[in-house]
Structures are given as C-alpha cells and as structure tokens.
Design goal:
The chain is α+β, with helices and mostly antiparallel strands and 268 residues long. It folds into three domains: 53 residues, no CATH class; 45 residues, no CATH class; 139 residues, no CATH class. Strand 5 and strand 6 form a beta hairpin. Helix 1 packs across helix 3 and helix 4 runs parallel beside helix 6. It starts with 6 loop residues before the first helix and ends with a strand. About 22% of the residues have low confidence.
Length: 268
C-alpha cells in the first residue's frame, strides 16, 4: 500500500491539506513502513533546510512591514524628512547592516520617511511591480531561481513565494498536465485568504513535482478587497480539464479578482 502513496500526497499530508480519513490512511501506513517514514522525514528536513536559508528574507520582510506601518502613522505629519534616505541606505550598506540599522530605528516613529527604497536591491520590495509568483528549485547547492517555462522533472522540489504589490487578498493554486488542481495557499480551509501586501513572502512548505506530464501552471489569484475565494475552487476544477500548454488563463473570475500565471514544463 505504501508504494501507492505518492510524493505529492505526502506533501499534502505535511501541509495539512488532507481530510481526516486521508490522514488516517497515511498514518496507518507510516506505522508499518520504515521507507515511508524516511520519505516523510526527508520532506520535513528539506523544508526546514530551505526555510533556514531564507530566514534573512523573512527578517527583512518583517522590518519592512513595521517601517511601512510607522510610515503610514507619520504620513500626516508636516515636519521635514530626515537627512538620510532609505534608498541610499539600501545601496550603501550590506544586508546585515541594513537589518541592524533598521532595527535600531523601529522603536521610533519616523516622520515622512521614504520606505520604498529599502530592499529594492535585495528583492524585498519592488516599486511599481505587479503581483506575481516566484519559484525556486531546491538543489544540493542551495535554492536556485526558476525561469518561466523552465523544464523540470518528477521529484524536483520547489519553493513558492508571492509578491502581492499592495493587494490584500489572494490564493495560490496550480493545475498540472493531468488536470489536477492543487491549492498551495492558504494552507487551511476556510481561512481569510489574506496576503502580505508588501515584500516577497515565502510559503512555509515546499512542493514536490509528481509524474504529471507536459506542464504545470501556478496561479496567483489576487484582489484588493475581500472576495469569497473558496467559491472559486469548483469553478477552477471545472476548467482544469481544458487547460493546456497554451490555454492557461482562467475565465469567469469575479469582478475585482485578477490572475498572474507562472508555467514550468515537465520533462518526460
């Protein structure tokens, strides 16, 4: 039975995306299969390793968000801006120095501080960017950025991140060459579907490609105002069988919802 449990199913188990009955099946199999336990442990170890390599990005994102909040509080002030510029600071100091310097300032409320510059050169915030996804391939040498339409194979482990660029709500799903729909974010059903509006946000868990052929499209569905994303799942599933390499866009999205698509190719 354990050989019928796919890598994707184990990933979904780690993500908490399975029903209780599906979890029970896997947990019973884990009790009797050392090989399955090793596969599960490998996924969890790889997730922890990948996340540890991105801790500095998470720290910078949190700093950016706190600066944004303080800046909005101070936006109505009329005092002149301080002599330094975050933009110059980001270019002049290394990443660690930016974090230390920013941390020292976070306990104060800045007045009219321009924050869009922090991290522009280190991938934390891109001024004027549209919402989109980024994919990283987990390799022995560390995470490597994945290009649009890059050929990948079964077993490759991906890490997804999103840049919401000011939007507040979103959902990330993928459709593979078999018409299978996978929800990557949010992690739990009936969540609020809120996203981090600024910076690049790394999803908590990785995703292992299965043996689905030809392609996999990753969709970032986003909106400025709250929309019932959960109702979109049946609509997406109904369209999934008709999605192919060239026909990627989802139709019938509600007003105010937009989509950004990232495609990878599957090597047979």
């Amino acid at each position: 039975m354990t050989d019928k449990i796919s890598q994707l199913r184990l990933e979904q188990y780690v993500l908490g995306e399975l029903t209780q009955s599906e979890r029970d099946i896997i947990e019973r199999a884990l009790e009797h299969s050392e090989q399955l336990r090793q596969r599960l442990q490998a996924i969890e170890d790889s997730n922890r390793e990948f996340q540890s390599q991105h801790n500095h990005e998470a720290m910078l994102m949190q700093i950016q968000q706190r600066i944004d909040r303080n800046s909005r509080i101070a936006s109505s002030e009329s005092e002149p801006a301080p002599w330094f510029s975050w933009n110059r600071l980001a270019y002049a100091l290394p990443v660690v120095a930016v974090m230390v310097f920013a941390t020292l300032l976070l306990n104060q409320t800045p007045t009219n501080v321009t924050t869009t510059g922090i991290g522009e050169d280190i991938g934390i915030r891109l001024k004027g960017a549209k919402p989109h996804l980024k994919l990283y391939l987990n390799t022995k040498e560390g995470p490597q950025s994945v290009a649009e339409n890059q050929p990948l194979k079964q077993g490759d482990q991906l890490q997804l991140s999103y840049i919401a660029a000011g939007f507040n709500y979103g959902m990330i799903i993928s459709i593979d060459g078999n018409g299978m729909v996978t929800k990557h974010f949010p992690y739990e059903q009936h969540s609020l579907f809120t996203v981090n509006p600024s910076g690049e946000f790394m999803l908590h868990n990785s995703y292992v490609l299965d043996n689905a052929p030809r392609f996999e499209h990753f969709y970032f569905l986003y909106a400025e105002k709250k929309i019932d994303f959960e109702k979109m799942i049946p609509l997406i599933e109904a369209q999934a069988a008709h999605i192919n390499e060239t026909q990627r866009e989802l139709s019938g999205l509600p007003q105010g919802m937009e989509q950004s698509i990232f495609t990878i190719r599957k090597m047979n």
